[in-house]
Amino acid sequence: MTHEIAVIPGDGIGQEVTPAAVDVLESLELGFEFVEGEAGDAVREETGEALPQETYDLAASTDATLFGAAGDSAADVILPLREAVDSFVNVRPAKAYPGIDAVRPETDLVFLRENTEGVYAGHEDRLSEDVSTLTRVVTESASERLAEFACDYVSGTEHDGFTIAHKANVMRETDGLFRDTVKSVAEDNGIETDEVLMDAFATHVCLDPEQFDVVVCPNLAGDVLSDLAAGLVGGLGLLPSANIGPDRALFEPVHGTAPDIAGDGLANPAAKIISAAMLLEYLGYDEEADAVTEAVESTLAEGPHTPDLGGDASTEDVTEAVIDRL
Ligand code: NAI
Ligand code: MG
């Protein structure tokens, strides 16, 4: 059975790292059919729309999507794309790889971030010149869906339950509902949990990341805390992510368009290539997923490295080095 994969590079270094991931997947000769879609600042300038309907439809109909990044229009692209795949969880591993000069080399975390609501539900208002408001949405159903995924994610693995990061001491209704729902689903599934206040987590994870493993959190907390973890492991060029829905999924690096280096061919493709390995695993190609992950890991350990990791190699050099190891 061949799989149709949507490829949406977007803007900036999205245009550089996405083809790198496609090259790696093509080198495996799995017979995937890649279909390209446009999104982001460039297509908005041309057509007035950051996410053309046909790109949305492509993501909503293919088995999986590889997305790069979008610039100023990011919110108008990635939020609807996550909706197109009905993604309720964003899986964000943050791992320090051997050979990389990480602030905390012992870091090995996975964030399971709620992906549909919280402060990103889109209910913002400008009441007057000097007053703006935001409505934070937390539902039992979205919290349940996330918790069930988290239970599946850890059961039968080396992961010993998961940690719930929240701020229910202040946001009693919203994060209270989130925490109670996630906890109760975990209890029903016989999964152990502990909990931590999200601000305290930020300190603890910097001082001693080893005490955490799988972290389940609301949308904004997951966004911010996983970027913080990127700082612990050697930068944004290393963090992949998967937006999982019931029938399809979208894979993207955590980073953005990196305007400071875009166009130079020097972007680190590791985050995007590991995202492609997550796509392989999602589609059931476990062996190939492991092979790609190991090829990236040994490239990170032995080089070549792009400038963000202290080297002078190009995106293409690193991509070729990964493909050579496959
Ligand atoms: P960014 O992730 O684009 O860049 C932050 C810093 O990390 C920059 O110094 C950049 O050079 C570096 N960096 C990021 N990825 C790298 C890679 N693969 N290799 C080497 N260095 C890398 O975040 P920033 O600067 O906050 O945002 C830039 C643009 O990206 C904005 O327009 C923002 O809206 C957009 N953005 C889009 C996202 C998406 O489409 N999902 C996510 C985050 C930001
Ligand atoms: Mg972010």
Automatic annotation (TrEMBL):
On whether Oxidoreductase is a keyword of this UniProt record, the answer is: yes
One of the GO biological process terms: isocitrate metabolic process
**One Pfam family this chain carries?**
Iso_dh
Instruction: Report the InterPro entries cross-referenced here.
Output: IsoPropMal-DH-like_dom
Is Calcium found in the keyword set? no
Q: Which UniProt keywords apply?
A: Oxidoreductase
Q: Where is the Isopropylmalate dehydrogenase-like domain?
A: 4-322
The entry assigns this protein to a family as follows: Belongs to the isocitrate and isopropylmalate dehydrogenases family.
Spell out the protein name for this chain: Isocitrate/isopropylmalate dehydrogenase family protein
